[in-house]
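Could you please review the protein record set out just below?
***
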Amino acid sequence: MPPGYPPGFSGRVMPRLTNVQQVPRQAWLTLAVVSAAVFMVAMEVTVIALALPEIRDAFAGPTTSALSWVISAYSIVVAALLLGSGWLADRYGHRRIFRLGLTIFALGSIAAGASNSLAMLIAARALQAVGGSMQYPAGLALLLSAFPPRRHQTAIGVWGAMGGLAAAVGPSLGALLIVIFNWRAVFYVNVPVATAALVLSARVLPRHPGDPSRGRVDMIGAPLASFGVGAIILGIVQGQQWGWASRPSLATFALGTSMIIGFVVRSQHHPAPLFDLALMRIRSYALGNLGALFFSLGFFALLIPLPVFIQDLWGWSVIKTGLVYAVGPAVSFLVAPQAGRLADRIGNAPLLIAGSICGMGGTLWYLFTLTSQPALGALLVGSVLLGIAAGTGFSQLVGATMHAVGSDRYAMAAAGRTTFFQLSVAFAIAVAFTLIGEPVGADATLSAYRSTWLLSGGAYACNFVLFAFIYPRQKVGEPKA
C-alpha cells in the first residue's frame, strides 16, 4: 500500500454511472466500507512524511536514516505478507480476513500513537502493515464479488480514486491534526475510521465462507524475498554508521542476498509457489517492474524527505508545509483520470515517457532554483511537474506491467507487482535518507538534498529510456492470452 498514492490506483475518478438500478444496494455499501479502509491507509503515507520532523524531535533527534524506518518498515512488511494474505482471504473467507486486517491496523495505530521510543513506533508501524496487507487483497475480492462483472471497472475506479483523494487531502488534514494536537494524532485518527468500518462491515459485507479445499502453498518463499530486501535496506541505512566494509555491514548484505537466492530456489522447486517466476519471462511484465523501481527512486526519494527540508531549512510551519505539499498529489489526482482514458487509445508507454520527461523537468527545476532561502513559486512549479509525473506514472505502470499477462495468472501477477512496488518504495526512501545523512549548516543541508534530487532525476531519465527504447510496443486493445 500504497505508498501517498496507492499502487492499485486506477486513475478513474468519476466513472460513468449507468444502469445504477441494476447494482444491488449491498454492493454500494460494500464499496463504501472498503473505500473507507483504502482512504485511511493511503492517507497515512503523506501524513507521516509531514510529521517526520515532529517525530524526530519527540524522540531526542534520532538519525535521519533511522527515521526513514518509520515509513520503510510498513512497505517491507506489507510486501512480505501481501501474497500470503491473498491466499488466506481465499482460504478462510474474504470478510473474515478483511475485518481481521482492520482490527490489526487499528491496534497498530493505537500502539504507534502511544509509542515512547522510535523502536516502538517502528514496531507499531510493522503491526499496521500486517493489517494493511490483509485489507488490500480481501477488500478487492469483496468488491469484485459484490458487483456484477459489467460494473467491475466502476467499482474499482471509485475504490482507487479514494486512495488518490486521500493523498490529495492528507497533507492539509495531517497538518491540522499536528497543530491542534501533536504528531500522535496522525495515528490515532485511524482508530475511529477503522472502528466505524468494522461496525458497518459486520452488517453490510457479504459473507464468504472461504475455500477449505485450497491446498497448501509456499508461505515462506515470498517473505524470504521481502525480508532479504529489508536486510539489504538495513545495510544501506546503517552503512555510514557501521562502516561500509565493516563486519556488520558485510554480514547484513550477505544475509539479504542469501535470502533472495533462497526465494528463487524455493519458487523454482516448490510445487505451489505464491509467485511463479515464469512471469518474469514476460518481457513487458519484467520491464514494467523495473520501471516501478525507477519510478519509486524518482518520486518517493524526493517527495518523502521534502517536508523535512521545508520545515528544517526554510523554517516553515507544519500548516504551510502541508498546504504546499498537497499540490503535487492534487495535480496527480486531476491528471490520472485523463491519462487513464488516453491510455485506452495510445497505450501506457507514451504516457510513461511524458511523465518521465515531467519528472526530469521537476527535479532539474529544483536543482537549479531551490536554495536555502524560501521560494514558494519555485517550489510550486516543481510540485506541479512532479504531480503530472505521478498522474501519468502510478496507474500507467500497472497497465504496462500487466499488459501481456494472461487472465489465468492475473491475480498472482498483480499481487507480485504490488509486492515489488512496495519493496521499491522502501528501497527508494532508504537510499534517499542515507544520501541526506546528518548535514550541519544550511549549505551542507542544501547540498545533501540536492544529491537526492539528482538521484531522482537520473531515475526518471532511466524510466524515459526504458519506455522509449526498450519496452515492447503495445498493441492497444489487443486481447490478453
Summary: The domain at 24-206 is CATH 1.20.1250.20 (Growth Hormone; Chain: A;). The two ends are 28 Å apart (CA to CA). The chain has three domains: 24-206, 220-273, 275-481. The chain has 19 helices and no strands.
